[in-house]
Amino acid sequence: MPVKTLDALLKEHDKYVSFADEPKERHYFPSGILALNYIMADNGGRGIPGGSLVQLIGEPKSGKSTLSLDFIAQAQRSGIKEVKLEDRSVNALYLDFEHSFDPLYAELLGVDLTKLLVITPFYAEEGFDLAEAFVMKGIQVVVVDSMGMLIPKDEEDKSHEDAPKVSSEAKPLGRFIKRINALADIHNAVIFFINHYRANISAMARSEKKAYGAWLARYGWKLTIQVRRTGTEVDRAKVEAFIEKTKLGVEGRKTNFEIVFGHGIDFDNHILTLGLGYGMIQKKHTWYSYGDYKSQGLTNVGDLYPMDEIREKVIAALQGE
């Protein structure tokens, strides 16, 4: 028999208990890529709801880090909470296990560097403890970059001659996913995990690949976005974002965008390409036209077209699908 009454228990644990017809109030985290907002979740293009663990997976140089920085920049503009430190306030956390964070590139993508806290932990457990503490304090956006570069504390006193323990990296990761999943839900946060493919040595065909990380991870993700480079031009890369797994909408949907080297995502080109797909922009040979506006190609012509007008028409078309 419980010592406390039911009313006392409900009052004590009220943040964990809610009626099914009273859904929790959620903050939504959009990307700057218009079509991606509509295919990530079936909520009218608002983006990823708070309380989600998201995996961004793909080959090297496919655009995963760029996409994660874009999510940070958009979240910072959307009015997320700030945590007061000694001399400043922060609203996003970047766990840089790869030790490769580029502040100049992040700023080009629109990230407010004064509000972003970058932590470069040596061991996985150090970073995970800090991430949990900041989420409990109010941070709503965390990026883990990347799962393939996690070093467990178990390897602290090992020499390079010692054989690594099987699945030693998976244990702290699995523990973190279980704990941060609950914390993200309670504190209305989104946790982005950047991940890579590795060879599946147990497969008959050695070319077969699988995602790095704990087996538990596949159950923790609410959304997995596969990022794949589909082509490269002189100054830009063509990228496809594919919804590999989702609990928020329909799997198997995809969209395309372009990343300009040294500048980030070309948002105008994405909207113009969507306008072409929906028949708003006409193409004849190498010439494109929208009403009286004409250009030879769609690259770097955002300042020539009425982008706000085209954007509104594209949004209406996306909502009508």
Could you explain how this protein is built, in words?
It is a single chain. This protein has a nine-stranded mixed beta sheet, sandwiched between helices. Strands 16-17-18 form a three-stranded antiparallel beta sheet, with no helix packed on it. The protein has a two-stranded antiparallel sheet with strand order 1-2. The chain is an alpha/beta fold and 321 residues long. The chain has two domains: 23-265, 3-Layer(aba) Sandwich (Rossmann fold); 267-321, Rec A Protein, domain 2 (2-Layer Sandwich). It has helices at 6-12, 34-40, 64-77, 103-108, 124-137, 170-187, 217-220, 267-277, 307-320; strands at residues 28-29, 48-49, 52-58, 83-84, 89-90, 92-96, 116-119, 141-145, 190-195, 197-199, 209-211, 223-232, 236-246, 254-260, 264-265, 282-284, 287-290, 293-296. Helix content is 30%, strand content 26%. The longest helix has 18 residues, at 170-187. The chain has nine helices and 18 strands. The mean pLDDT is 90.
Please state roughly what percent of the residues sit in beta strands, choosing from under 5%, 5-15%, 15-25%, 25-35%, 35-45% or over 45%. 25-35%
Count of domain modules: 2
CA-CA gap between termini = 54 Å
Low-confidence stretches: none
General shape: globular
The level 1 CATH classification of the largest domain is Alpha Beta
Record the strand order, biggest sheet. 7-6-8-9-3-12-13-14-15
Compute the gyration radius: what is it? Answer: 22 Å
List the secondary-structure elements in sequence, H or E.
Answer: HEHEEHEEEHEHEHEEEHEEEEHEEEH
Task: Write out the CATH superfamily name of the largest domain.
Answer: P-loop containing nucleotide triphosphate hydrolases
In the CATH hierarchy, the architecture of the largest domain is: 3-Layer(aba) Sandwich
Main sheet, how many strands, which sense, barrel? 9 strands, mixed
Mean model confidence by pLDDT: 90
The residue fraction in helices comes out at: 25-40%
What is the CATH fold-level name of the largest domain?
Answer: Rossmann fold
**Tally of DSSP β-strands:** 18
What's the tally of helices?
Answer: 9
